[in-house]
Structure formats: structure tokens, C-alpha cells
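Researcher: Let's do a round of design. I'm pasting the C-alpha cells now; please hold your answer until I've finished.
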């Protein structure tokens, strides 16, 4: 497993997808998804140029936190339980998974003067096993976030359905981009529509072609997960 080679290969594929979409490769942030990955291997990815890492469980996030260089940005990409907010609220750079008001309330309460950047997770495909707001409820949800001064909506995130055919997921990414543009046009004062987080190992190139500027990549960098 040559992590340096994998990172270079991923960055190259990201750049090519960006060019196909007429966009600059530098505008796309690669979040290396480090769930189940030990600090040693994470450091190899950082040495190869990774500057953003993403965990999906709070316990793992906290365990590795102190061993990761301060300049590396930390993303929380998985479902966040309200009672775990207190463990990460002072450590996280971007939360990708805001999906309910009770969570917004707890983040706001625990922020201690900070403003916590969040993405709203949207369940575009409406799969029952997935978290996220349905698109029909998205605008109302955003309006309800207005009173929470210590969180700031920075964009949207989605997880596409698992499919062996990447073209089958393209419409879900295109749809999230439409929602992103629509909300941006509304000009809500408590929202900066800056980040569109979509695309993983199986589908990140299609996601970039459809407008993603954050991709979350695990296996293409660290190999298959067996735990
Ligand atoms: C695990 C995970 C990823 C990365 O998946 P890979 O297929 O390993 O690239 C991305 N986003 C979320 C929310 C995840 O849980």
C-alpha cells in the first residue's frame, strides 16, 4: 500500500475532472477520509500533500486529534449525536452532517463564542437508511436555523446511492447543485453558500463534473477498510 502514490493519483484524477468541468483544480478540496485509519498512515497522506482529513465517528476523531498537525483541517462527516457535540465543538473545522434542529441547538449552545461552520446534509435520493433533510424541507430548515448565531451554514453535503454505474448517480449530484444555487440566490443573511461536499471513492469525478468543491475520499487513498 503506497499511500503517497495513491494521494498523487487521486489529486491527478481530481485535476482532470476539474479541467473537464472547466474549473481550477485548486478550487477543489480533497478531504482524506481517515475512519479506521491509524495515525501513522494518516501522517503518510499528510506528507504526500493532504491538508484536510475527515472522520465519521466522534470517538475516533477525538482519539487521533492530538497527533495530527495543527495546520491540517478537521472535518466531521458522519452523523453527529447531540450528546457528543461537546467533545468536538472546539476541535472541528467543518461539520458536514447537520440534519436536525436539535443538533443545531446543541452546537449553538456549546459554541462558546465561536461560530461553527456547518454543511446541511441532504438526502437527495430519499433512501430510508440515509440521514439528511429531504429537499422539500430544505428551505424551511434553513429558515429555522436563523436564530442560532453561533453556527454558520456554509453549504450542502450529500451521499449518493451506492451503484456500480457512476452515471446512475450523476442526477443526484446535479440535483444537489441546483439546490445549492437556488439557496445561494435567496441570499439568506445567515448563510454563505460556499461548499458543495459530494463525491467519494466510487464517484468523485462525476461529483466534480457536477459542481462539487469538496470531495471525501477514503479507500482510493488508504485502501479497503476491513473493520
Ligand atoms: C466513509 C465515508 C466516505 C469515504 O468513502 P470511500 O468510499 O472510502 O471514499 C465519504 N463520506 C462519508 C460520509 C463516509 O462515511
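Researcher: That's everything. Go ahead.
Model: Designed sequence:
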Amino acid at each position: 500500500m503506497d499511500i503517497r502514490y495513491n494521494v498523487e493519483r487521486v489529486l491527478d484524477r481530481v485535476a482532470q475532472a476539474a479541467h473537464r468541468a472547466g474549473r481550477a483544480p485548486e478550487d477543489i478540496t480533497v478531504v482524506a477520509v481517515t475512519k479506521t485509519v491509524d495515525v501513522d498512515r494518516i501522517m503518510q497522506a499528510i506528507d504526500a500533500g493532504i491538508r484536510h482529513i475527515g472522520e465519521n465517528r466522534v470517538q475516533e476523531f477525538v482519539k487521533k486529534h492530538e497527533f495530527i498537525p495543527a495546520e491540517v483541517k478537521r472535518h466531521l462527516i458522519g452523523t453527529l449525536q447531540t450528546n457528543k457535540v461537546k467533545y468536538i465543538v472546539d476541535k472541528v473545522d467543518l461539520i458536514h452532517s447537520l440534519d436536525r434542529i436539535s443538533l443545531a441547538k446543541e452546537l449553538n449552545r456549546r459554541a462558546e463564542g465561536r461560530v461553527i461552520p456547518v454543511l446541511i446534509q441532504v438526502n437527495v435520493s430519499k433512501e430510508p437508511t440515509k440521514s439528511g433533510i429531504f429537499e422539500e424541507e430544505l428551505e424551511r430548515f434553513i429558515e429555522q436555523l436563523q436564530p442560532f448565531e453561533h453556527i454558520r451554514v456554509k453549504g450542502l453535503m450529500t451521499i449518493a446511492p451506492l451503484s456500480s454505474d457512476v452515471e446512475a448517480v450523476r442526477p443526484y449530484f446535479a440535483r444537489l447543485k441546483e439546490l445549492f444555487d437556488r439557496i445561494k440566490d435567496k441570499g439568506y443573511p445567515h448563510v454563505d453558500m460556499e461548499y458543495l461536499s459530494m463525491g467519494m471513492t466510487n464517484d468523485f469525478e462525476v461529483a466534480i463534473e457536477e459542481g462539487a468543491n469538496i470531495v471525501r475520499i477514503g479507500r482510493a487513498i488508504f485502501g479497503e477498510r476491513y473493520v
